[in-house]
Amino acid sequence: MGSPQLHVGIVASPGKGHLIPVLVLGNRLAVFHNIKATIIIITSKNSPPDTQLLKTFNVPRKLIDVVQIPPVDISNLIDTDAKVVTQICVMVRQALPEIRIAISTIKPDALIVDLLSTEVMTLVSREFNMPKYVFVPTNAWFTALAIYSAKVLDKEIEGQYVDHGNILMIPGCKPVRPDDVVDAMLDRNDEQYNEHVRLGIEYTLSDGILINTWEEAECDTLKGLTENERLKSVVKVQIYPIGPLRRNVEDKNMENWILKWLDKQPSESVLYVSFGSGGTLSSKQMIELAWGLKLSQQRFVWVVRPPCDGGADGSFFNSGQNPEQTAVDKSEKEEDNVKSSCSLCPAQHLPCDGTLDYLPEGFLTRTRDKGLVVQTWAQQVEILSHSAVGGFLTHYLPEGFLTRTRDKGFLSHCGWNSTIESLTNGIPMIAWQLYAEQRLNATMLTKELRVAVRPEFLPTKKVVGREEIEKMVRTIMQYPEGKGIRNKAKQLLISAENALRKGGSSYNSMCKVLKDIENKLVS
Ligand code: UDP
């Protein structure tokens, strides 16, 4: 356990998918290691502070402070076709002067920056004398690819990775299919590729890399990163698997209309369908998914966003800006208004502002007995922990959990936070990768961990037809072959709980980070 006085600053780059794991990391440091944490949140005018999200987090205020950097303005960039990674990196760069002021004011003993904020470490090296670590909120395979591609493959391979005939070799790790590379590697002529290379190099200039994974989930890759001499000579720094960090279910979020609907469903019978904080589907895909769900005849909760034909990360900066739409304080009112508020919807599909007309005609009425459609944002952790979807788990393995975690499923875009939230509830997945490193995650989940099924072709390349969707849903929720997948998900859940408990591999790994900080401070 670290010293009670240790104070760590943690920088979160813009985007809910980045802020959430940083908040969970701060929470874990505070609650389990008695560390004071200050979260430094970078925002921009097009990704305003997630005040609602912060409210739903039960952070121990005595131990965790939050500093919001004044929003930077990147409107010029948005008018161009700058990709998400480029936009985020520019936001971080523009926020540096304010981050300098924040660090001078809060005076932490050490700084942890998330995977897209590594430029802050350059500032720290130049102006502050403190240890600095990178927090990768996703997995070890991504980390190995990010570093090895930036420092080695970038020089060795000519042309586009996606056109490369052979799989990409990483010493000591599973190879990567060119089709599975992260978004930033798809086009080497795009500015976000340059940022990707810079980020991968900067990871290796830190004092260590904290990864949101655990030994049992990624044994071989972690071995490669820590024991393979060729890879180690590239990575250079200590690797700390400290995950899977997962949000806790908040009591105050438990009373809302979606959960009330779930209360009425049979135990473990509901498929949860969500595409993360910013994922979007094309109009055609949306229609196929709707009819695929209908054909499967399974119960579902589907978090919908208007379709976007321009890219799968179409809502990255603006999804769930009003998550309070489904939050506790409004839920009662919404439920009261259920029948009168929208002529489009039967009672189950609410709250609805009448803009669900992008769903196929007749879908809402024809699924009224089975499904719930939620607009934009839902309280995912609470839903996944609900007994209709999955067994409720406390932080440590509760007695008898195996009997409570039975048939259920999650059609997920494979963002790593969602993956962890699914696996730590023992829930098998339909892997529907969309952007960022999600292709890599989907391959890991289906081929290696075997906790998911996925469509034959990448959903970003080809529309997945309704019959294939129906088959995947039935496999996970109904067919006998889904049983093996469910059992694997339960095994992973046990290993995750073991890794996190006191004395477990991830708990010990976090202790090592804190010891390293203490040693560096005295030397
Ligand atoms: N999330 C949520 N409600 C939603 C959609 C997403 O609470 O309706 C949360 C989800 O629980 C997860 C995060 O947003 O913690 C999304 O992170 P992930 O890494 O899965 O995907 P990303 O959004 O970064 O692509």
Explain what you see.
This protein has 523 residues and is of the alpha/beta class. 42% of the residues lie in helices and 11% in strands. It contains 20 helices and 13 strands. The protein has helices at 16-33, 51-56, 75-79, 84-106, 119-127, 140-156, 191-203, 219-227, 229-235, 257-263, 283-296, 328-336, 363-366, 380-385, 401-404, 416-423, 438-448, 466-477, 482-500, 505-522, and strands spanning 7-12, 36-41, 64-68, 110-114, 132-136, 209-211, 239-241, 270-274, 299-304, 371-375, 409-412, 429-431, 452-453. The protein has a seven-stranded parallel sheet with strand order 3-2-1-4-5-6-7, with helices on both faces. Strands 10-9-8-11-12-13 form a six-stranded parallel sheet, sandwiched between helices. Strand 11, helix 16 and strand 12 form a beta-alpha-beta unit. The longest helix has 23 residues, at 84-106. The protein is globular and about 65 Å long. It starts with 6 loop residues before the first strand and ends with a helix. It comes from Nicotiana tabacum. This is Anthocyanidin 3-O-glucosyltransferase 5-like.
